[in-house]
Give the backbone structure.
Amino acid sequence: MSEDLELVVFGAHLRGGPLSHELTDLGAQWAGEITTAPRYRMSVLPTDPPKPAVTRVPDGAAGASIMGHRWLLSPRALGLFLAALPAPMQLGKVEFEDGTWRTGFSCDASAATGPDISRYGSWPVAIAARAV
């Protein structure tokens, strides 16, 4: 639908991930993969299931490109999802390699104190490498 809104996710909400049902239960439709601009860091949050903390690095700092999945949701579904989102997770604008800014999942930077797994480029690769 043309009124659907896009949400980009990076961890447990990836298609097939343990929390993807939270999106599909709201009627979300998977819309493909996308990669951030190389201005982000991904670390591990001590949650169950584990989740990545994606944060933007300051200007001039070394960052990485992170692969995410695009989901399309109705405005109502996105609002319900946001209302249920636990801290320190948050939604905000994320810059992508094509120069666009899209609504994406991120984390309050003050909570992103776990191991840095940015070098893996994606949550599934980090899991496969047993970094999580």
Summary: Residues 44 and 52 are 5 Å apart (CA to CA). The first helix runs from residue 21 to 24. Strands lie at 5-9, 29-35, 40-45, 51-56, 67-73, 89-95, 101-107. The two ends are 36 Å apart (CA to CA).
